[in-house]
């Protein structure tokens, strides 16, 4: 699904970040990211930068392809404390939830997406150690959304189109 951005939202697609968040229709958002073979200092620095970019954008998740890096790395912050996940794989999914989602790569567009309510995620931490997390509710939604980015999938591919609407995130944050 192509997204047509109304003129009044065009200003939201500009950023002063060191590594700007790419926006639709950037081709990198539709590509599959490669696994990280070995977690190096470069990768840890990249993760730190992604956490900073995510926070500056008032986001709760960011995937490497959103900053033009085709590697399997996501950062999420479901409860305010950032988590870095290299090569995340969702190994189990249970239940169902429907909730509103937006995306830093499509600022201002929101809609309802059906996701699993409980997920188990296997990944590697910043030190390259294997980790397993069980996530529920909002945290499960975030990790599913970000792992989708690693596979070139956007929330607009899964959204209930009847629920899509534009909302100015700048105005929302001022409320």
Describe the protein in words.
There is one protein chain. By secondary structure, the chain is of the alpha+beta class. It has one domain: Peptide Deformylase, CATH 3.90.45.10. The chain has three helices and eight strands. It has helices spanning 41-56, 138-150, 169-174, and strands spanning 61-63, 73-76, 83-94, 97-101, 109-115, 118-124, 130-136, 165-166. The two termini are 30 Å apart.
How are the SSEs ordered, and which strands pair?
Elements: H1 41-56, E1 61-63, E2 73-76, E3 83-94, E4 97-101, E5 109-115, E6 118-124, E7 130-136, H2 138-150, E8 165-166, H3 169-174
- Rg measurement, Å: 15 Å
Average pLDDT taken over every residue? 89
Report the top-level CATH class: Alpha Beta
Summing up helix and strand content along with how strands pair, one would put the structural category as alpha+beta
Please name the CATH architecture. Answer: Alpha-Beta Complex
- Give the termini separation: 30 Å
**Tally of DSSP helical segments:** 3
- Total tally of structural domains: 1
* Helix content percent band: 10-25%
Going across the major beta sheet, what is the strand order? 1-2-3-6-7
- DSSP strand tally: 8
Shape: globular
- What is the ordering of alpha helices and beta strands? HEEEEEEEHEH
CATH topology (fold) name: Peptide Deformylase
Largest sheet at a glance? 5 strands, antiparallel
């Amino acid at each position: 699904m192509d997204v047509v951005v109304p003129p009044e939202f065009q200003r939201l697609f500009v950023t002063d970040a060191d590594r700007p968040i790419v926006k639709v229709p950037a081709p990198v958002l539709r590509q599959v990211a490669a696994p990280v073979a070995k977690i190096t200092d470069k990768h840890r620095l990249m993760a730190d930068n992604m956490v900073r970019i995510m926070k500056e954008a008032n986001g709760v998740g960011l995937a490497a392809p959103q900053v033009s890096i085709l590697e399997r790395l996501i950062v999420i912050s479901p409860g305010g404390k950032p988590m870095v996940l290299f090569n995340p794989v969702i190994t189990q999914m249970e239940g169902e939830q429907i909730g509103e989602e937006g995306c830093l790569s499509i600022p201002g567009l929101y809609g309802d997406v059906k996701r699993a309510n409980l997920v188990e995620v296997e990944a590697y931490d910043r030190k390259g150690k294997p980790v397993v997390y069980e996530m529920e509710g909002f945290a499960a939604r975030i990790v599913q959304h970000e792992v989708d980015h690693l596979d070139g999938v956007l929330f607009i591919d899964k959204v209930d189109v009847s629920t899509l609407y534009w909302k100015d995130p700048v105005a929302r944050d001022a409320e």
